[in-house]
Amino acid sequence: MIDESVPAPAQPPQTRAPAKNNVSRDVRSVPAAKATPAKAPQAARMPQRRKSVAGRPKLFVLDTNVLLHDPMCLFQFEEHDIFLPMVVLEELDAHKKGMTEVARNARQTSRWLDALAGASGADIGDGLRLDSTGHRDAGGKLFFQTQALDVSLPISLPQGKADNQILGVVEALGRQQKARGNGKNATEAQRDVVLVSKDINMRVKARALGLATDDYQNDKTLADGDLLYAGSLALPADFWATHGQTVESWQQGLHTFYRINGPVVPQLLINQFVYFESPGEPSLYARVTEIRGKTAVFKTLKDYTHLKNAVWGVTTRNREQNFAMNLLMDPEVDFVTLTGTAGTGKTLMALTSGLTQVLDDRRYTEIIMTRATVSVGEDIGFLPGTEEEKMGPWMGALDDNLEVLGKTDTGAGEWGRAATSELIRSRIKIKSMNFMRGRTFLNKYLIIDEAQNLTPKQMKTLITRAGPGTKIICMGNLAQIDTPYLTEGSSGLTFAVDRFKGWPHSGHITLARGERSRLADFASEVL
Predict the structure, then answer these.
(1) Domain chopping of the chain, boundaries
(2) What percentage of the chain reaches a pLDDT higher than 90?
(3) Which residue of 323, 404, 438, 462 lies most exposed, with the fewest beta carbons within 10 A?
(4) Exposure of 120 by Cβ count < 10 A (0-12 exposed, 13-18 middle, 19+ buried)?
(5) What percent of the chain is predicted at pLDDT more than 70?
(6) Same fold: 43-214 with 318-526
(7) CA 272, CA 320: separation in Å to the nearest integer?
(8) pLDDT for 395 beyond 70
């Protein structure tokens, strides 16, 4: 049996005992997807990665919940150093047992620590080089607490609590750095000591004590203030004046193509929609199909708002819905993400386009529908039956939309509608995400509903199930996240939208206007 215990430092601390039952410790956060160190697209957005004013690398003291949240966090701090208090190692050891995600992350963190300590030439006293395990982006060192520190905290903070012990370590290290910077024979300049924790209350306490602290943000696709990619761009009012002289146009089938160059091109991405609406001038609705250097090619869209282009008897009602339907009906687009508030038509459009391509075009063999089974309120408990029967109560949206589609064929009569309903249900399979691991879907139309409740790791698991000829539709409302510890910035849906933008075989659109009812629209705005 592999020994996963953390190597013990040479001199354990003697001024405080490790906390055994830390009920208040915030270590239950949903683990983030394991980041690949070779990819560091978010370095510019992470405040904890900025250098100090003096240009010296910072010293980051990690809380236990950061390690349990993301075992790869040890290698995400670039040139900065990391310090682990002894109580953090104690807590890691306490959480490594079990089959939960937190326990798995604790064991993986212990393995990384063991690998760093066992690397050639490793010296715990001098700090362990974080790039010794092949993570070249990590240029700092890892330090363990190997001796007792002179802690000076208010009497109101009990010393036996793990949170307060970590705060004491941060305070003592800060005083050491100040003394080093103020010393007459100082050989090193003072550097900042920063506590990194996912525990909001602990960060509040640290700020109250005058200690520098920050959240671990590597799991967040979008930082505060960033805007999620909308999938569409309004062309400026002077677009034709600034680009019209150099525009080339040609006809190919039912579509018109425009090749443009000018100041708008650097803002564009492949499969992004552009539109031009101005009083007294012809409107333009197109999709970017090609970008080469300083030129881009626009392709006009099929108008699904017109009755002759209705999909399974359903026409789109606004501009964004028409954009979405063009993505859903395009066989060259393998991955589509749809976001928007309640009642914008996400599920209905995905279902109608799927039925048309399965039953009429025979492009796919069947529709597979799944969703995150996260309750809005209290859990109702065990559900009897087969996998599909257990998923039934979660698929109320599917039944509601099938009822709408059943009413679109008014001339079929009652028997005809019943036969159509049976045919539709025979081509729709409801699957649970719990049993997706290891599967491969061939020529399927996969709909993932309520995708905002998925973690990036779960999203990756589902998308990588796609085999040849499979199309995946991810839908969700980022304003209605029910999974604890997930936010708009760390949701798997946000992760997928951000990572897939610009790929020639994917597309995204944010639906702006609700079409469910005036009551639902007003509730979305004011509640």
Answers:
(1) 43-214, 232-300, 318-526
(2) 42
(3) 438
(4) exposed
(5) 79
(6) yes
(7) 12
(8) no
pLDDT tens string 83-114: 999 999 999 999 999 888 889 899 999 999 99
- What is the overall mean pLDDT for the chain? 81
Closest to 489 in 3D by CA, of 478, 499, 503, 500: 478
- pLDDT at 382 (0 to 100): 61
> What is the amino acid identity at position 515?
E
Q: Report the pLDDT value the prediction gives residue 207, as an integer from 0 to 100.
A: 94
CATH topology of domain 43-214: Rossmann fold (3.40.50)
Closest alpha carbon to 490 in 284, 247, 279, 226: 226
The β-bridge relationship of strands 295-300 and 284-292 is antiparallel
C-alpha dihedral, 322 to 325 to 330 to 336, nearest 10°: 120
Overall fold of domain 318-526: Rossmann fold (3.40.50)
Instruction: Kindly report the three-state secondary structure assignment for every residue of 184-230.
Output: CCCCCCCCCEEEECCCHHHHHHHHHCCCEEECCCCCCCCCCCCCCCC
Render 42-90 in DSSP notation, one character per residue.
TGGG-GGGSPPTTSPPPEEEEPHHHHHH-GGGGGSSTT-EEEE-HHHHH
Residue 291's φ and ψ, nearest 5 degrees, are -135, 120
Helix/strand number for the chain, H first, E second: 14, 18
Q: How many Cα atoms occupy the beta-carbon half-sphere of 4 within 13 Å?
A: 16
pTM of this structure: 0.71
| Confidence at 418, pLDDT banded by 50, 70, 90 | low
CB 398 within 8 A of CB 428: yes
